[in-house]
Amino acid sequence: MDRQEEERLLKWFEESDDNNIALSESESDPYSDDGQFNGDSDYVPDSFRSDSGSERQSEEDNRSGTESEGSNQDLEENEEENESLAENVAAESIWEEVQTEIPNFEFDSTQSGIKIVGIENMSPIDVFRQIWNNDVMNLLLTSTNTYGAKLLNTNRPKTRNSRSREFKPITENELNKFLGLCILQGMIKVPIIRKLFSYNPFYYHPIFLHVLSGRRFEQILRCFNATPAVFDEQDRLHKVRSLLDLVKQNSNSVYSPCEALSLDESMLLLRGRLVFRQYIKNKKSKYGIKFYELTTHEGYILNLEIYHGRDRNQPKPGKTSKTEELVLRLLGPYLNKGHHVYMDNFYNSVSLSSKLLTYKTHSTGTLRVDRRGNPAVVINKKLRKGEHIWRKKQNISVYVSKWKDKRNVCAITTGYKPKMITVRKKYGVEKQKPCEIDGYNRHMSGIDKSDQMLSYYSCPRKTIRWYKKSLISSFGYIIVELLLSVYKRSKKN
């Protein structure tokens, strides 16, 4: 500040009568009479600030907008918390500790069993022909011969002794021989298939060379196919779907299941590259093709689906989850008949059990604690060993229970009233156990029995073509069902 300005300010202060008034006036008006800025004032005008008025206004607007957005978010979060709290309170209010009568859907047990007329006088091959009938054979013959001719017409270079240099269409008799040798090779362990047709004393078996030559067997195996003439190219299972549909239809036509059914998954070992190859760590074959199977508790396969990955063209599920849709598809032919299906915690939920009751079908099995709709009073309850707690959903016979053995076990059932019963273990030791857990243990072993019998006749062999392994595996399923049918017949006699 220059000398003249200082003198002017001193003179102005001297002339004022009240210093306080002069100070307040100097704060309110920092400019002198000639419009010069008073630098000793605490007030700094906008023109002397680094921020312009427009920038300061935008900052104030942004600040107010941020504050309003934050307040809106807080309100939305509070509303969501209130809604979730209200939902939890409402969800807990629908569970009660009252037992009601279990609905009796009056399953007709007189219709269950083998439906083949005159099976007492049939040989095993006659029973086999009831499932693996002429329609299946014609599909295999047509598809295999078509694929063999297609391989013959390819432009790939062929050596003089190549199997694809010349192809002779197979006959039904040759196909029967081929399938018979596939069953027989399941009981003989050799490093490669060609050893079955050698004279090496370590591997020699007279039946193989007597029935077919090694080159002809390998040629039929290379061309073995079940793809129909018309198929959907978008379907990943078009190479096996037609055969599986025929086999399932024929299996259901010759046998009616009893009341108890079990639903679980099975694995077909496959280490090759496949877009829908799965991994399940608790299975013997950890990598491979996953089958969802519906069986009787004795191991008879009633229905199955192959997992083929996500379908991008499939519409998004609505109120029904994909797991529930899968269960309803597998149980489709057996709904509204009074069956009782046993499933593990991968499938079970409160909504699925409620929905199955509308189809006159009971369900029992283990339950995951994080499923939507579970009663918190049961899931969060800390139990001591041997303790048992349960709740029932209002207006519907759905029971959720929890039992502490070595660890906590949650279960859901619509076919039992939860209570503790005395069961006898393997060596005659008695133990207290919930009745729903005991029923689950007795009827859930259908898939395991089926896999056990398949292991005795392991027809599939290592191959990079997954569909061949699936086709021959389906042939093994028929052998299992044949054995069960013959067993039931001998049991009646």
UniProtKB/TrEMBL annotation:
<feature type="compositionally biased region" description="Basic and acidic residues">
    <location>
        <begin position="1"/>
        <end position="14"/>
    </location>
</feature>
<feature type="compositionally biased region" description="Basic and acidic residues">
    <location>
        <begin position="48"/>
        <end position="66"/>
    </location>
</feature>
<feature type="region of interest" description="Disordered">
    <location>
        <begin position="1"/>
        <end position="87"/>
    </location>
</feature>
<protein>
    <recommendedName>
        <fullName>PiggyBac transposable element-derived protein domain-containing protein</fullName>
    </recommendedName>
</protein>
<feature type="domain" description="PiggyBac transposable element-derived protein">
    <location>
        <begin position="123"/>
        <end position="473"/>
    </location>
</feature>
<feature type="compositionally biased region" description="Acidic residues">
    <location>
        <begin position="74"/>
        <end position="84"/>
    </location>
</feature>
<dbReference type="Pfam" id="PF13843">
    <property type="entry name" value="DDE_Tnp_1_7"/>
</dbReference>
<dbReference type="InterPro" id="IPR029526">
    <property type="entry name" value="PGBD"/>
</dbReference>
